[in-house]
Amino acid sequence: MTGPFTVCKHDDGDGGVRLEVGGELDHDVSEALSLILINAAEQEGVRHLVVDLAAVPFLGAAGMRSLLTGRQVALRHGRSFTVRDPQANVLQTLRAAGVAGILSPTTETAVV
């Protein structure tokens, strides 16, 4: 991994949580990312979980698995899960792996 891995949590106070993720999402950070996503998805009062990937320049298989795990846990708890603003190469990776349809990445500005 090059560069720092960061996650900043923004809570809108009305059930929406946005996690701004930064850095390369590879094997080195996948376990931490999974735990962060699971924790956010399991919190009481959360209805919408948005993972903002605008500051993610690289997405590896392990990072993709973390996103899928976070989505699975969110859905199991009745929360929506959205991936937002992936860079072009990250979006291309999601499409090439066949998971873009599952994660439904969007470039729309979400209010969270």
UniProtKB/TrEMBL annotation:
Looking at the record's lineage, which domain of life comes first?
Answer: Bacteria
Q: Where is the signal peptide?
A: none
Against CDD domains, the record matches this protein to: STAS_anti-anti-sigma_factors
Question: What is the designated name of this protein?
Answer: STAS domain-containing protein
Q: Which InterPro entries match?
A: STAS_dom, STAS_dom_sf
The residue ranges of the STAS domain are 14-112
Recorded hits in Gene3D superfamilies, A to Z, give:
STAS domain (3.30.750.24)
